[in-house]
Amino acid sequence: MFKLQGVVKVVNPTVQISDKFSKREFVVTDNSSMYPQDILFQLVQDKCSLLDGINVNDQIEVSFNIRGREWTNPQGEVKYFNSLDAWRLDKVGAGGGMPAGGPSDMDLGGSTNASPNVETNVQEEDDDLPF
Length: 131
Fold this sequence. Notes:
Layout: E1 2-11, E2 15-18, E3 21-30, E4 37-44, E5 59-72, E6 78-91, H1 111-127
Antiparallel strand pairs: 1-3, 1-5, 2-3, 3-4, 5-6
């Protein structure tokens, strides 16, 4: 499993390849390096609908798997192809929900109140010492 954050550049419609197979492609621009990269992802079957709430210029995080396959052309040459199969899309900075960093970044409250009480208890213990 891999993850990538970037800006949506292209959203294509769903294409019905056969009676039992459909796919939808989209491009995300990765600006994390000095040279931006436009990366093509695909969604297949029931995952095609994940793009329905996503628009061009949205900042998203894509969870995906890398798939590779071998193909022999009619001339007998063996070729290899890779695809990036997305299986989850999350808008970044959309507000609400889980922070981008995950549950560890959430303020669960109450934890800041515990520290002063501990310090107070330590001070009380120091006061009970005979010297």
